[in-house]
Amino acid sequence: MKRYNCSVVVCARWEKPYILEWITYYKSIGYDHIYLYCNDDSPEELYREILPFIVGRDPFVTFIHFRVQGFQQQMYLHFLTNYHHETEWVSFFDVDEFLTIPAFRDVDDLVAHYPEADCILFYWIVFGHNGHETNPPGSVLENYRRRATGVNEYTKYICRTACLLDDRIFSPEGFGFWHNPASHAYGEIRVVDVLHRRDTSVNTLSAREMELVEHTASVHHYMIKSRDYLKHRIRRGTGGAFSGQVIWDETEQGRKDALEDSLRRFNAAENTSLCNYWHDMARSAGDITVPPMVAGRIISVNRPCEQSSTSAWSIGDDTRSDAGNAVNGVINGLAKFHTDIEENPWWQVDLGGLYRIEDILIYNIIAPPRQRCRNIRMEYSGDGKNFRFGFEKMDDCPVGNLATGPYHVRTSLTARFIRLTLIGRDFFHLDQVEIYGEPCGAA
């Protein structure tokens, strides 16, 4: 049993601004581990950037500093020599490449759908600079939404690691095996594309099949981040496997014209799929929020209040000042008002005008007397004299609090006054009451 099922190997030079998003993305789609070959002159800056993924008993990233610039094949062979035994499947992606798998739950689900294959190829979809003159700050996935039409002939893959331990791959003839290993190996590697085709030439894809590829799995290649980034690619070095970067040099007019044509082609269409995916991930930020978020406008803070009585434990000197503490905006689990023991004690708030009320949050206290507040009734009124029934809670369970979550009532009513009554004979005390809504007549 291998330590990991699916892993990524990556070579990174001058990629600090983009590495955290890239690592997080591959973790989000189910890869178990990343082997990161830092090709910077000094590794410390990149290492510090990804410390959260390196520390701990089971780090997500294995960090290797490879000092010789541009020897991409040798970095990959170092992985195959030293770490092949740790992972069942492996992919070789660059920091500007994001595998998108819309047809699958995660990468484990993906490989399970190709039982006939040792290697599944992913076609490139090339993204352009989106008109950026300089690299914009922030997320790659959010900043780049323009791409070339169709799919590109270049491929990446996920492959059974054992199939790559081939003598030819370890020879000079193995150069480029990270795009498609079949033509670089002596042994047979059963390669299919994401449509289960053994003929993996992009030229044999119909228009319908190209569309199916995009809805199944592909690699979004954010190759050009800005015009200035082209110069950055030259500056970072053209040694070893980076020698191809000289094609972005604008010093010759012919190359400049070709570059302009490429930029037009690479920005021809829109694709927001990974941008939307990234936004959806960020929306989970509020899944656990204490106190819970309510979308509307709070209308109860510091409004005049009243209650049925006071007691020795009241904070205010009279019923109004004591009751008003329940809308002071401070939620801390402590009693803000405290009636005397009586039959059906009540508390109410005057919102100062008619409102369309949408949500009511009732916070009990945290301390053991919280069980006093179990069954409650809400009534509402437009004039403070004639009250109508709103709802009753009669489950005999304590009302929730800051620690357990407040009692949340979603409603649709029009009122100026809201009254809460504790059903039965007892003391009535709460931490806070929040009421959300909009003024009547508001657009």
TrEMBL record:
Listed GO MF terms: glycosyltransferase activity
Keyword Ribosomal protein among record annotations: no
UniProt-annotated location(s): Membrane
GO CC terms: cytoplasm; membrane
Topological category with respect to the lipid bilayer: Single-pass membrane protein
Origin: domain of life: Bacteria
Domain F5/8 type C stretches: 318-424
Keywords: Membrane, Transmembrane, Transmembrane helix
UniProt cross-references to InterPro entries, sorted A to Z: FA58C (IPR000421), Galactose-bd-like_sf (IPR008979), Nucleotide-diphossugar_trans (IPR029044)
Pfam families referenced in this protein's UniProt entry, alphabetically: F5_F8_type_C (PF00754), Glyco_tranf_2_4 (PF13704)
Protein name (database record): F5/8 type C domain-containing protein
